[in-house]
């Protein structure tokens, strides 16, 4: 709603949040660097006009650590204890709240031991400013090191039919072993799994950082989406609903998996929420997995420089 190729209409954005909460959505995921604070301001305005009991049901999940310049460019990752506490102070002010439900570094700071970062959040938990500690885009070793400092309640990771890495990297197994929930983002593969994406007349401007929409890969990936259409049509649902339901159904194998869906318009909320109630059978899951095998997707999920920033993608561990 704040950082996008086409900025969201703020009235629509607030109405979308209200519609989602009314439909039973209880998790709102944001970050202090989404629009350089704009998204937190937007959420504050949306929550301010909710009924008190609805507001009480909302859990705010806030990421920090992404540093940005005046032009909006990302300029680094920061996880030092002083930054952790300073960043939360500003988030609490923007959100107009005395605590957040989940606080998490958006990425692992390679120059700060994860124990120091989590230790600082643990201080904030002790002080009552944070209820639970989360992580984002980290691998099994980092999860274990962080969990040894303070219980981790949730790991946010990109996970979809097109991004199956968490299944083979040990991330999902580690979370299940330690009793940590998983928040899956990118469940629609940056739009590819909506079923509505079409090959653009020119190159998608995101192609330089999203290889899967690069012209070299896009046709093959859209062909995979087409293989999902008959499965969705047979159930009278959209490809997007099928892909979302598949992610949620992974809770059977991997423990609690929650899907975070990005939408900016109220009428999209019903479709998204309906997907949470779809009951996929084991046969359905096998058919879906057969239509989109884990190794069939063309292109990595991000360009190489961005992949290098992801602890979750470092198969041989990473010093920090």
Polypeptide structure, described:
There is one protein chain. The protein is α/β, with parallel strands linked by helices and 320 residues long. It has a single domain (10-313), classed as NADP-dependent oxidoreductase domain (TIM Barrel, Alpha-Beta Barrel). It is built from 14 helices and 9 strands. The protein has helices spanning 10-22, 38-48, 52-57, 81-95, 114-127, 140-149, 165-168, 171-178, 215-235, 239-249, 251-254, 267-276, 282-291, 304-307, and strands at residues 27-31, 59-64, 66-68, 74-77, 100-105, 130-136, 152-158, 181-185, 257-259. The strands form 2 sheets. The chain has a 7-stranded parallel β-sheet. The protein has a two-stranded antiparallel sheet with strand order 3-4. Strand 6 (130-136), helix 6 and strand 7 (152-158) form a beta-alpha-beta unit. Helix 4 packs across helix 5, helix 5 crosses helix 6 and helix 9 runs antiparallel to helix 13 (282-291). The two termini are 33 Å apart. InterPro entries: Aldo-Keto_reductase (IPR050791), NAD(P)_OxRdtase_dom_sf (IPR036812), NADP_OxRdtase_dom (IPR023210). Keywords: Oxidoreductase. Residues 4-288 form the NADP-dependent oxidoreductase domain. This is Oxidoreductase.
């Amino acid at each position: 709603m704040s950082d996008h190729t086409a900025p969201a209409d703020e009235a629509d954005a607030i109405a979308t949040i209200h519609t989602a909460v009314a439909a039973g959505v209880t998790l709102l995921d944001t970050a202090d660097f989404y629009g350089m604070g704009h998204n937190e301001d937007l959420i504050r305005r949306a929550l301010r006009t909710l009924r008190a009991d609805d507001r009480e049901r909302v859990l705010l999940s806030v990421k920090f650590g992404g540093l940005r310049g005046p032009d909006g460019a990302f300029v680094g990752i920061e996880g030092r204890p002083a930054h952790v506490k300073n960043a939360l102070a500003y988030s609490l002010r923007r959100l107009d709240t005395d605590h957040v439900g989940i606080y998490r570094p958006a990425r692992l700071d390679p120059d700060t031991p994860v124990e120091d970062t989590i230790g600082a959040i643990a201080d904030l938990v002790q002080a009552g400013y944070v209820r639970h500690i989360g992580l984002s885009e980290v691998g099994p070793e980092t999860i274990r090191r962080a969990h040894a400092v303070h219980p981790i309640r949730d790991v946010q990771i990109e996970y979809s039919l097109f991004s199956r890495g968490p299944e083979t990297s040990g991330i999902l197994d580690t979370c299940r072993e330690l009793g940590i929930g998983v928040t899956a983002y990118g469940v629609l593969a940056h739009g590819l799994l909506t079923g509505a994406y079409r090959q653009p007349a020119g190159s998608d401007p995101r192609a330089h950082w999203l290889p899967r929409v690069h012209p070299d890969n896009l046709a093959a990936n859209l062909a995979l989406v087409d293989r999902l259409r008959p499965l969705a049509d047979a159930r009278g649902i959209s490809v997007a609903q099928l892909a979302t339901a598949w992610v949620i159904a992974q809770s059977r194998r991997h423990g609690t998996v929650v899907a975070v869906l990005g939408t900016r318009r109220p009428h999209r909320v019903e479709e998204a929420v309906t997907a949470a109630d779809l009951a996929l059978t084991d046969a359905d899951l096998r058919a879906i997995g057969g239509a989109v095998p884990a190794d069939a997707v063309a292109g990595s999920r991000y360009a190489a420089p961005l992949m290098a920033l992801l602890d979750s993608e470092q198969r041989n561990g990473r010093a920090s």
